[in-house]
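quick q for whoever's on today - can somebody do inverse folding on this one?? i tried earlier but teh output was garbage lol. tokens:
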């Protein structure tokens, strides 16, 4: 459905020139979303896919092991969209205090993303509502270290920003003036809390994401936080028991169309096209996550069966294997610390796992050797591809 401009333009003076900034109308859309049979069917399919994804947590013998890597994959993808060059292996090396293959700030940004997600989930579990306060807290963690640490972490912006271009005058989009950010975010907070009216959670996540990206309330980190908002909403509303849905890969794959849809919402109110895209993103992403979980489960079961063929030595080797599922790049020293097994037994187990083709040694050091559970990482790396330039 085509509507009128979903907000209003105001004249601003920034960076020494005049420009037009956009202030969005509050949610929900007016007139309401036109639920065509096609759009309703797409949302129904997306909700079914979310249900299957949520059931994965009961299928996996240890959901936390899967989540550990899955959250890290999302952190890498979401940060790639913002231009970092860090890979999943770089992040795992960084967490081991090894030397990553990219700039340290890139890996720190990815690490911050993980910390921000878990901070948000923890605060929700403590009873803090999804609110401006919580979003500022999460932002403070997101920009705690690295390049964004000078961009007022945890505070709404007090100066004008813009998207695309080198200045407001040639920008692709200019968000609301700084003095209007608080009011815009206050209205978004009311919408999140079902005011003026209740909104189904998946629809709420889709609408709120666009609104947050349009307001762009922070100097940096808006894209990452806007994507996190979707997952936090679904977890807060108990659609997902665990943070297992991340749309960054789908948004990255369809990046140009994603931005086009956001702009069409603002200019002519085509919420329906955006909602169709969003539901498809949820459907595809949730299905991929279920498939990935099954592949990882099959791999770990197959390798565990192989390890049991070692006889008496299998008990300690299985414990090492389990530690590698959680952190598939590890040193012999880190595995000693993780499992409490003696260094000699750990090294013997690693030699057996290497002989079985389950792990690969990445170094030739005699002490504190570095190993990779390569097949596990390969499954998790599916779809990541190179960082955008």
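ok took a stab at it. sequence:
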């Amino acid at each position: 459905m085509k509507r009128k401009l979903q907000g209003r333009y105001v004249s601003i003076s920034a960076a020494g020139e005049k420009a037009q900034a956009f202030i969005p109308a509050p949610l929900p859309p007016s007139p309401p979303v036109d639920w065509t049979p096609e759009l309703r069917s797409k949302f129904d399919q997306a909700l079914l896919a979310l249900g299957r994804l949520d059931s994965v947590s009961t299928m996996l013998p240890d959901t936390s092991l899967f989540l550990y890597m899955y959250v890290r994959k999302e952190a890498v993808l979401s940060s790639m969209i913002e231009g970092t060059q860090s890979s999943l292996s770089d992040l795992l090396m960084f967490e081991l205090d090894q030397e990553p293959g990219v700039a340290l700030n890139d890996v720190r940004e990815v690490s911050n993303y993980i910390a921000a997600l878990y901070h948000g989930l923890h605060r929700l579990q403590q009873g803090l509502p999804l609110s401006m306060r919580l979003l500022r807290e999460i932002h403070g963690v997101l920009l705690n270290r690295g390049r964004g640490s000078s961009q007022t972490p945890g505070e709404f912006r007090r100066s004008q920003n813009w998207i695309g271009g080198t200045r407001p005058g040639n920008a692709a989009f200019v968000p609301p003036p700084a003095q209007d950010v608080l009011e815009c975010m206050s209205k978004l907070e009311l919408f999140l809390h079902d005011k003026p009216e209740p909104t189904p959670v998946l629809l709420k996540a889709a609408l709120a994401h666009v609104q947050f990206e349009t307001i762009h309330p922070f100097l940096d980190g808006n894209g990452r936080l806007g994507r996190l908002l979707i997952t936090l909403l679904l977890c807060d509303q108990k659609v997902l028991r665990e943070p297992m849905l991340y749309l960054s890969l789908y948004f990255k794959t369809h990046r140009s169309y994603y931005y086009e849809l956001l702009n069409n919402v603002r200019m002519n109110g085509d919420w329906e096209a955006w909602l169709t895209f969003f539901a498809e993103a949820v459907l595809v992403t949730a299905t991929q996550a279920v498939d990935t979980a099954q592949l990882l489960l099959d791999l770990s079961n197959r390798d565990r069966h192989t390890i049991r063929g070692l006889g008496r030595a299998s008990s300690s080797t299985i414990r090492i294997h389990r530690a590698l599922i959680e952190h598939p790049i590890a040193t012999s020293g880190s595995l000693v610390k993780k499992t409490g097994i003696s260094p000699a037994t750990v090294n013997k187990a690693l030699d057996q796992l290497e002989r079985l083709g389950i792990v690969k040694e990445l170094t030739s050091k005699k002490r504190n050797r570095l190993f990779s559970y390569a097949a596990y990482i390969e499954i998790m790396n599916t779809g990541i591809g190179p960082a955008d330039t």
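fwiw The chain has two domains: 7-41+49-292, 309-380. also The mean pLDDT is 87. so keep that in mind when u check it
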